[in-house]
Structure formats: structure tokens, C-alpha cells
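Regression report. Comparing outputs from two consecutive submissions.

Submission 1:
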Amino acid sequence: MLVVVVVVVVVVVVVVVVVVVVVVVLRSLLFLLLMLVVVVAVVVVVVVVVVVVVVVVVVLRSLLFLCYCCYCYYYYYYYYYYYYMYYRMSPPTEQRRFRSLTWVWPESSSRWWMVELMYDLVIN
């Protein structure tokens, strides 16, 4: 959105400058050539700024997504790890109650054997 606003503002400014120059001061071919050079320079600067902004936004979004993924991974790892430790240290009746809470953690879920494996690797 910011890129679109910047591009629109720059295009409007360039058009206004060109119209004012053509209407008011267009007396010499040299001046027209100079304005053409200025317009080309402005367009090049705008393109470079837009490319830099897009690259920065894409890189920052990628980094933020990566940070979010790392946060989610560690959050869920520790959540399931401590949940499973509590399950393993509970009496059998409590373990049955845990296994009946399918909305929390289905017994057939892939997460169950994954965390059991993590538990075995860390504890044993």
C-alpha cells in the first residue's frame, strides 16, 4: 500500500512539473532536453526506491515469518513435552482420563508418538 501511494505521488509530481514546464517555459529545445533528462532521472530514482522498498518489505516479512515459526515450534514443543511428562507421571486412572480428552490430544494423533519419542530421547 505504501509503495502504491509513493508511486502515485511521484507520478503526479512528475506530470505537474512536465505540464508547467511545457506550458510556461517551453521556449528552447535545450530546455526540453534538460527536462527530459530530469524526468528520466526522477523515474529511475522512483523505480530504485520502489524496488528497495519491495525488497525490504519482502525480507522483513520473511524474517518475521521465520521468527513466528520458531516461536510456534518452541511453544508447542514445550507445551506437549510438559503435557506428556505430566501424563507419564500420573496414575493409570489419570492417564485414562487424559487419553479420553480427544479434543486436547487424540491418542491416534501423530503428535502423540512424536512427543513420546521426544520424551524417550530426553528422559531415557
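Submission 2:
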Amino acid sequence: MEKYKILQQITDNTSGKLFLAENRTNNQKVFLKTVALPRENTAYWVEQHKKNGYLLSQVQHPNVIRSCDFFINNHHAITALEYMQGIPFAQFIPSVTRYSFCEQVEMAMQIVSAITTVNEYGVVHQNISPDSFIVRQNDRRIKLIDAGIVAYQIPKGYLSPERLQRKAAPNSDVYSLGALLYVFFGYALYPQENFLGKMYHTNHLPPLAPTSHQENFQRLSQLLQHTLEANPAQRLQNALQLKNELKEIYKAASSNTAKISKTIKKRLSAPIEPRKDDEEEFVKAKVARAKKKSRRKLMGILLVLLVSVVLISMQLYSSQQKHEQNKKAFSYFQEARQLFQQERYSDARKQNQKALAIVEKPLFLIQKALIVFECRKNNEDVSLANELARKARPTLEKLNSAFAIHSLGMMYTHGIGVLEDRNRALNYYNLAMKRQYIPSFLEAGTILEKQKKYLEAAKVYQRAIKLKSPEAFERLALLHLHKRLTTNNIVNAEVWLKKGASLGSGRAMNGLAYFYFNTYSGAQDINESMSWLRKAVKYGDLTAYYNLGKFHLQGVFVEQDTQKGLKYLEYAAENGHANATFELGEAYFIGKKVEKDHRRALVYFRQAAFKNSVEAVGRLGDFYHYGYGGVAEDHSLAFEYYTKSAEKNNMLATHQLGLMYYYGRGVKKDLNKMIPYFTKAAQLGYAESMYTLGLMTEKGIVRAQATDNRTVAIYWYKQAAAKGDVRSKEALIRLQAK
């Protein structure tokens, strides 16, 4: 573990070891949780631990600790967690007697709130025990340190009956929460008892509580017994119910003293009835009071009738008005859906916002979440998309409409409001496809292509073609053009693309532009390619906007026009096109036909990085490496960005990693680690790396193993010269003259 220095061991239990450590690069303290991996099916367990760490990195909740790193070392899964000064919850429990009943309930609410948040991501926590939490003593802040995706060997006292039988129910974690809270409150009630003793007392004896909180303790005891029902159907159904019940107990306990004071005050201020010596006067007064009471009762009845008539009238008017509003909102929503499917995200967002301004519905919310995610520019957009999706999800799961089912698939595809799970997404898409919902065919095909199941993807697209999906023609044609299928028919590919174009698919038109540009028709036909590209722009295809914008900016195949090029690129970028966003950043970074502006370029690169642009991530590394645009140099952060980009085969970022090891920037100077990065960048086709390897081999900085340095240097110079590198051509002349 070169990156971290172990300071001390905090816990060692069945769920792994917890260490306090320090990050060597930035000297920040972290927790390291290490778990030994099973020898069998190791790859599966590594993936589960990755999901566990990823979920902790996504959750933003005051009672859930966040993860910042994950790696494998010596057959152990290691997760780095944010540091919080505190002690393990198991050590804190014995000191609970120092706190009041209200404070104890408030701490219990924190525990349940953390589990409720994990549940909202579609995860049933499998490891609820005192070892799953850490507590800061000065303000009683409790944080969950495990997302519960990987099941550990936790004490049986915390396992539900169905878990002991190796089964699980959606509310299994409610039982575990109940057991944990019994132990927690048990220390306050029976501090001398062990775990089993506390369980016995809480089940069979009345709680030993102060008189002022006797009723609240009894209510709490009944609640916890309800969480420990052996039959899951008779148990509380989820952690959210438990949280709400605890909240009510907390409110009752907090206001208990105030209620007592109010009762005493009322009794003291009540008027004393004067004694009547004259019986006749007393009877008259009594009759008068009865008449007065009767009149008041009659007035009350009349008032209730009047209010009821007014309310019914208002309700009828409101119902009619609401119907009109819903009708108008739904029309906006339908327009937004069509625009979204056409990838016109900016226009779709405006229409969807109009619908939400009239009435807030789950379908509108999830569509806004998807639009915001597609056009994300920063962390705030990602957080908003997650929040909207989580808010809409409970209702979507109850609906049986194709759009609702498809939306759930989109959530699991991209990890919006839930943990990313593409197999689960495919299940939702299959359900929507049975209802002939065309976008689900396209999304399912995309996932299958990423899984390299090209034949299955082709079958899905063929089903969509039967439903007259223009995009499906383009998708199937490209599978043939890219030789993804065993039988590649170029002629049929052209026919399918033209058929899709005839149905109004901008993507199919852009596909035809690609077809004629890349000589699939036998010879490159620039005029035909540009004709189809312009048609694709008219039909709103974002990739066509990107290509035409780039061509106008560079003056390639079309007349050079900076303003027109920027206009096309900005439209595509605004609607979520990652490459267009990067191209704008690159234009301002290099000063390509526009005035150089590093600060403006940085904004575009950050937005493109959020849209998963590998090149943009590499450029962010350049900003922190060299301090462009007023950014403070941070070689450690630059190394991190370069590494992320190089993992996706970005040759520029890979070359920069080689330079960092050569100069010792952000890392320790190491020529042995430098060579693989330069070699990989050269193999990816980067001429600068080829020249650098040739020069270093010629100078003896790098020594050839299989042959002499001169031969290897000439090899790399020739490779770079073929790429047009002038320095390499001069070096070849120099070496061949010797």
C-alpha cells in the first residue's frame, strides 16, 4: 500500500479490520477498511466490494461516511473512507447511560436514517451490527461505514430468522436494526447484563424508566418488539417506518415536560364556580346556561353546513381547474418526451420545466432527472438528477406504463438515484419491449453492444425495425460496417441507412455521411457525405452538428467560418454532446481560429469530463500539471487525472504519465516505470512518444534488451517519421550517416 501509511488499528472483527491511515500524497487522514477475499470466485467478490465502495462514494448524507478510494492488495479488498474523529459504536454503547432518554432516541434516529438512505438506493443492508457504525462523542454524530452490499459473518443475534436460513426479505434489515437498538437501549436500562440478558429483559420485563418517561419507554419497547417479529409479514415493512415511529417518540418525549406545565397552569387559571345559597336563582342560572349552550350548538351546526357548502363548491371548481392544468401539463410533457427521444435535450428541458411548473408528477420528475443527467455539467447537476430520480422511483415501481418501466431501466443503466446495474436495466427494458416501447429496444441494444453481445444486439434492432424505428436501421447498419457480425453486408448497410433516413432519422443521415466519407461505397465521396451531413443537421442530429461545426472551424471540406462552427458546436454541447463540449474547450485552449482563453477552456473541459470525455479528463491533468488558466499547480491531482484518462487509452495522457516519472513530478522519479507509459503511448500512435523513445535509446537513458541501442532508436525514429515528425527524420539522417 504505497499510497497510504498505517497509523493505528482501530477494530478487528468478523466484518474486517479498520485502520487509521494517512495519504502519503496529501497527508490527509483516512480510514482504511480491509476485508480478506475468499479464495473461490474471487472476481465476483471483488466486483461486490467495488459496488460497496461506489455506493458509499455516491451517497451524500450526514450519517453515512463517504469512500474516496478502492484497491486490492495481498488478496484483500481495501476501501478508503473519509476520516471522522471518533470511536467504534461497539465501544461507545456502554457509555450511553450518561445521556438523557431524548438524546438516546435522537442517536437511534441517526442509525435508522443511515440505513433508510442505503435502502433508497435499492440495497438491503446485510451487515447491521455495532461494527457497522462509528460515533463522534462531542456531538453524538453517528456514521455508517459500510453500505451492506457484501455479507460478512456478523453475530447471529443481529440476523433475522430468514437470514439464518440463508434467505432474505426486503425488511430483513428492520429485524437487525431492532436487535441493534435493543442492545443500545438495553445498556441504559440494564447496564450489568450481557447481550442475551438485555434481550431477555427487554422481551419479558417492563422497562426501568423514570416516571416522566414511563409511557415513552413502554411505547419504545413495543416498537422494538414489533421489529423483531419472526414472520417478515408481521414486522415493520421498512426502515423508513421505524424512523418515523422513533421521530414521534422523540417529539412526545421532548414535549412531555411542557405538557405537564401547561396542564398545571390550566388548572390554576380555571374559574371557581360561586356557591348558590338561593336554589331558585341557581336553577334559573342553570336553565339560562343550557339555552345559551343550545344556541351555540345550533350556530355551530349552521356554520358547519355553510362551510361544507363553500368547500364543496370550491372543490368542484378546483377539480375542474386541476383537470385543465393536468391536461395542459401532460401536453408539455409529451412534447418534452418527443424532443428527448430526438436528443434535443435543451428544448426538452424547457418543455418539461413548463409541465413541472403546473403540476409535479413522478413521470415529469424522472424525465427531468434523465434530461439533467444527459446535459450534466457539474456535481450539482448529478446530485439534482439523483434527487429527482429517488423522489420519483417509488411511484414508478407501482406504475405499469411502458415509459415508467423504461425510466427505471434508464436509472439502473446510468446509476441515477440507484446503484448502476445494467443487467437489472436489461430486465426493465425487456418488460418495456413487450409493450413495443421503441426507446427500450435502442437502450437494450446499446448495453448488449457494450457487453460485446453483437448478435443479440442485432436481433433487438431487427425487432425495432419491424416497429419502423429509424434509429434501429442506423444501429444495425453500423454493426455491419464495423464488422461486428459474422456476415457483413456493405450493400445492405447502405440500404438500411437510406431506409432509416427516409423515415426522418437524423442519426441514419449522419450514418450515410460516415458511409460515403470512409470509402465503404468503393471510393470516398466528399460531396455526397457533406450533403447527408447537412440533412442530418436539419433533422437535429447532435453528432452531425458536432462534425459540421468542427469542419467549419477548421475550414475542412467546407468554407472556414469560425462563428458558424462555434454555433454548431455550442448547440451540440448544450444538448449534452461530450465531444462537442471537448472540441470547444480545445479551440479556446489552443487558440484554434479563436482567441486563446484558458479559463474558458477549463469550463468546457470540466463539463466534458462530467460527460465521460476521456480527452477532457486528460486535459484537466494538463491544467493542474502546468498551472494553465490561473489554476494552482497540483502534480498529485494531475497524476490522478492522467491515470484516469490513460486507463481509457488516451495517448496524450499516457505520454504525460511517462514525463511525470521521468522528471519526478507528483511521484518519485523512476525510469523503469516511465518506459511502459512511453511505449504504450507510442503503440497507440503518438509520434511524440515514438521520438522520445528513440532519443532516450540513442542517448543511453533507456537500454535495449534484445538488440543494440542504435537499432532500437532507428526503429522508433522511423515510426515517428512516418507520422510526419521532422525531428525524427533529421535523427535518421544523422544516424544513417555514421
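Expected: both submissions complete independently.
Actual: both completed, but the second showed a warning that disappeared on reload.
Relevant detail on submission 2: The first strand starts at residue 4 and ends at 13.
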